[in-house]
Amino acid sequence: QQLGREHQGITLRGSAELVAEFFSYGINSILYQRGIYPPETFTRVQKYGLTLLVTTDPELANYLNNVTEQMKEWLYKCIVQRLVVVISSIESSEVLERWQFDIECDKTAKDDNGPREKSQKAIQDEIRSVIRQITATVTFLPLLESACAFDLLIYTDKDLAVPEKWEESGPQFIANSEEVRLRSFTTTIHKVNTTVAYKKDPAP
Amino acid sequence: MEDLENNTTVFSTLRSLNNFISHRMEGVSGLATPGSSQSSLQMQYQQRMQLEEQAGQIHSKSQLLQVEREKMQMELSHKRARIELEKAANTNARNYEREADRNQELLTRIKQYQEREAEAENKLKEQMEMNKSYKKSMETMSKKIQEKESKLAEANETITVLKGKISELQWNIMNQEMQMTSQDSEKQELMEQLDIEKKKWQEASQQIQTLQASQSLLAEYEQKIKDLEQKLSQQEHDALIVKNMKAELARFPKMERELRQLKEENAYFREMKENNGLLKEEVEGLQRKLERYEKVQAQLVTVELENEKLLGKLQSWEKLDQSTGLNIRTPDDLSRQIVALQQRELALKEQNSTFMNSARMLEKARQQLQEEILSVQSQLLDEKKKREHQEALVRRLQKRVVLLTKAQLSQVLEEVGSHKQRAEMLEVEMKVLKSQQCTAEQSTVVTKEEVDTLRLKIEELEAERSKLAEENRSLEMKLEKLTLQGDYDPSRTKVLHLSMNPMSLAKQQRKEEQQQLQEECERLRELVRVLKGGGSLSGELEGVGAFQSPQEVAELKKQVESAELKNQRLKEVFQTKIQEFRKVCYTLTGYQIDITTENQYRLSSIYAEHQGDCLLFKASSSSGGKMQLLETEFSRTVRELIELHLLRQDSIPAFLSALTLDLFSRQTIA
User: Which of A200, B272, B450, B468 is most buried as measured by Cβ atoms within 10 A of its Cβ?
Assistant: First the structure.
């Protein structure tokens, strides 16, 4: 199927799948790098020419799968604007980190049916550099001292019908934050910008 | 005729004789060849005979007679001869037969010999062939023999080698056998040693066993001693207990009285506690009220301050009325005034805006006018140039007119006239334009003032615009920062998440853990309090028991009850046993042994004459092994016995038994 995509170019559905796949692996990497779940619950897989770690915990995998499937649908309909990974302390419910993926969707792709010219390899290279950057951010992000849990927030258009099992939530800002922009990648239909915001260390 | 007949018979006998001889000759001449010569002789003989015959015939005739005579003789002789010849013939025949037989025999023999020869030849051939084959076989056999000989030689060599090896091996075997024998001898020695050791070991094990048996016995004796000591101590304890019990029993009525008193006090104290509880609640209520009142008071103070401020403000507002003179009494008037002012302001603003618009329009008009002026000026220049051109043309035409005389004069004049008209029109236009320019200049002069004011306003507006642009930039920066932080436009976006997300699950788990830990904490605190308080607070225990698991409490209660029951039973049993033992001792030994104080024992004899007669013994060692007699009134009466048994014989049992006997004898006598 991948060969077909390479020759045929990028369609709207193909782009939605690529972006949803990137989110799945990206979120797994974040959970592993930031130590939200113990490292022994992750296993290695090959993707984008890198060795990535994905979770083996069935509950967590099920949750990620649900979100990713829903994202695919909404990306196809071009009604999703942002995906945020919120990491907060379980004790104090204070938000410590925010990984924000802004999505710009070219709505004209819905109208014309012709696939866009961009090679799978180029997109993969871009995604690879983003994921490498995510891994590299560990060097400057502050340590997460207390036990943390994460939540996935999706910013959608106001008029979208809320599906079953989903509910509205607050944006969960960080009180005193420092933001760092990371690289972006584009499939010519969807463009994803990555930012990480973390709580500034209190002045010593 | 007889003669002829006789001749013929002679001739026939001659012929038969010749035939016989020829035959015989033929029979004899099997081997030799003289038979052929004999046949030729025969032929010659026959020829001769024929000749003779002829001669004979000739003679015969003549001799016939002789011959007949002779014949007769001859016949006789012939007969004789014939007989002899027959005999001879017979013998010859017999000889011939014999020789034929011999011939045949010889022939057969020859044949046999020939056959034998052939056979012998065949055999010889066969033998030769056999010989050849035997030779071949012999050769092969010889080769084989050679090979075998060579093999034999090799084998012999190997045999020698092997023999050497065998010899070596044998030597090795010999060595090893020697070693074996030496080792056997060693082994035997070791076995002997082993036997010795075994015997020693057996002896040692036996000794060990005996020692162990003795040790076990020792241990058992020690244990028995310990048991007995324990029993003794228990008995001492029990005796003490008995004493204490007696003392306690003595105290019993007092205790009952005290108990009654304590119950009364308890009831009183409970009432007091309840009252205390109620009072405490009242106090708490009152304290809370007090706090509230204090707060209210503080609030009152602040409110009074505010009130004063407000009064002051009101007064100032009222003074406003007086100061402004606008007939303001109530805030409604003020509001009305304000509204009116606002309306005026609005009107003014409208006016301002209209003025601004007019100013703009005027500016635009001015600009247009300026442009028109410029255009007019350019037109003017053009017109000027045109006029110059026209004047030049006019001059030329005039010249032409001068040159062209009367014939074209009218035309020329007309032309000149037309040109002049044009020139006049142009001049008129120019004048008009000049006048316009003047008016425009005038209007420009008029609107310059407006332009200045408008310029000022433009500068102000530009300053405002730059400020607004800066504000806009800063707001955009803030907005960007906020979007980075995650802000969104609520009218266009909403934030969704799954209800069952890891954060909420983690929080729930944390809450549940906390609740459980708090409950445990509470339980443990209650337990600690209860344990510190002591066991008499059974009511609280029960209350605590509600927090704890009821199973543990029930178990513990059961255990406690069972332990208490056991204790009681043991006490009863000990009491009965002690009493029994003491009675038995009394009846058997005749002495009642009482423990007066620690280590002091009082003995009263069954046969004592007086009630208070007793002996006092003191235990010098704690275990009660050695006893000393203490002085009593009774002991003074039995000094002789003491001297005899205790001082000399150093035996307390003897003393006691002697004393018993003595007292018994006294009793029976008395």
Answer: B450
